[in-house]
Amino acid sequence: MQTGVPRAGDGGLARRLKALACTAPLHDLDARKSRLDWVDAERYQMAEIGLQAIDEVTLAMDFDHGAAQPDVVRRLLPFIGAHAPDAPVEEHERVGRWVIENLINVGSLDRGFAVDYGSVTADGRYVRRRFDFKLLVELAGPDGEVYLRTSDEAINVLVGALDTDVESAQVAAEVKLENLISRGLLGDARLAAEQARYRTVQYAEALRQKLDATRRDVRSVDWLAAVPALLDEALTHIEGRYRAETAILDHIATARDEATEPSRRRQAAELVGVVRDCIQRHTQLQTRLQEAGAVFRAEQDRQQFAGRPRRAAIDVFGQLLRPCLALHVATAVEPTAAFFRAGAGVRVPSVPSLGGLVETLLAPPSDRDPLGEAVPVPELAPAAPDPFGAERWGRVDAALPAAGKAVRLSTLLAQARAADPDLPRLVALRVLHAVGSAVTTARTQGDAELLLAVDDGTVLRDAEYGGADLLVGTAEVL
Amino acid sequence: MTRSVPAVDVESAARLVAHGMRPKALPARDPGYADLVRRYREDDAFADTVQRVASGLGLVVLAVGPASGLVLAAVEDSAFEIRMDEYARRTVLANRQADKVMHGLAHLAVAALAFPRADDLADDTYVGRVSVDQVDGAVREACRALSERVAGTAEADPVSDAPQLEEVWRAWSRRPEATATKDGRAGEATTRGIVGKALRFLAEQGFLVPVGPDGVYRTTPRYQVQVRELAAQRTFDELLALGVLPAAGPDSLAGVAGV
User: Fold this and answer.
1) Is A224 on the interface with B (CB under 8 A)?
2) What number of other Cβ atoms are within 10 A of residue A297's Cβ?
3) Is A313 on the interface with B (CB under 8 A)?
4) pLDDT digits (tens, 9 = 90+) for A149-175
5) Phi and psi (nearest 5°) for A99?
6) Do A99 and A72 touch, CB atoms closer than 8 A?
């Protein structure tokens, strides 16, 4: 057989290229770190931090939620800190955020990555195709917060089980685990146990998607064959896992007790923790599986099926939306635009008055300096200080009559003049302001008291001020 | 046939059309409007005048009812037509085509989720409920179903040098659903951003009414009429012309599972 000639249907090449592509963003982290001007990035192993970040997000993913970005950064800090212990924590945080943003690929519109690869069609033509993938995905939570989940591609990169089927990878991991334990390779055993946990997370994710879709529209999910098959598969898987993990737990416990080397003992103890967590995850998944049927029945009742349509109408989802999704982008422009034009209603155009329009059009264009007008230098004048000052205001407040009493202006002026020659002016101004005070305004403002001044016809005899000798009193606002 | 219409009737007809142009005006809230609607339904000559006034302006009367009021639609190239270019103005030029399709698709998806079954669209008393969550989720689920159809085949990935030949479902599922922005709002170019824009726009047009604080909207009778009498039909015809749908009446397809 001739080699070097591309063959149709050689999926292996494409699969391996795609697997390789998933690791590219991690390599890029280290390739691009030297361009960062805010950090001496040589000290940080960015790809390691990236893998650790994917790890953290995956472990934080449970059935309903993902990880909030700040939480992930916080959990990464000890790991990042180990790379450069003397650098400030702020720098560690920034490095963590930079790595996560790059794994999301924040700068791009689609927030993902793409790589081209070639494949050969049945008629021997070489066609270049684009493989789109994401590593960390941002999703909106029920509370409106944005949180992170790892994509399937990322889980595959992480666990190193590229292009393998969920089920078979699970079995392999299990066999590997038992082998490792029996051969005493506990460090590897831990890794294998963690791999098993990721697989369970993937099952849970698949189930979550189906249930979400069911809640939206029962008919969109195949509850006749596909979902029962998935549920069966997952239940069988849990059953098997539960038996295997209980056995493994026994094995490790024995290994832990028999181990003489302290590091081996510690590893075994840690592994016990990992396996316990696995068992807990399985139990969680099992609970969800048991509830799945009830969700379906409840949703079916809720989205009850009515009888035949009373008049001919179009099934918008099935007859319009789904076919549009399957069209090419260029072809879909017309149908979607037609729906928009017909479904958006009418707009009332804003029309300027004809006279105004003519004037606007006839006005000569104003020459504009590209730099804009010169900024005028403001003339600054010294601000006049408060002529009275807080202390005098306080003294006048004290001198004004208490609630329920009335005093003549002349008495107030005399008292003030005795204390301070400048004080009478402030007293006079305050009292003048109190003439005709509006009670309603004071009430709406919520004032407790109101200063009132009333002219009863008495003439003021004073050296400085003239006019009526007002009666000044303070009234409570009820 | 010529017949003379009293000038005062023309004025009343124009007033009814003017009411129809106010998206949030309802006969139930305005006795004058309600009277004109009643007259339209009882007086054929008046109905004809209203239709002629509307037609002269470049509008079509879709329906007149006590619940929906006068529902108008703009004819093509009319001054009252809302163009996609104006609606999706803030898009990146390089991505123009895909963005337009996604905005149009969001409107289609809102209608699809507001009236999940053909009966719902036909039933005048039906009130649909939609939210960003629901719409984006359902479109994504539909995209996933389409992707499963090609999974494992050579067609699983799009051809790289012909972006216009990429299927719409790929573009939608590739776009992130939400992005964390500095001010905590959903990113505008995300699918949730696009759907949210559609919902807010439809609410402004009097087609949806927000209910509750969780971003849930309910449909108005106007929206049902607009979708049923015009938008769905036009799109159906477009798809028919493209040969995407089998050339049969919508009725014959309604009961077929999976269509």
Assistant:
1) no
2) 12
3) yes
4) 888 777 766 555 443 444 445 555 555
5) -65, -45
6) no
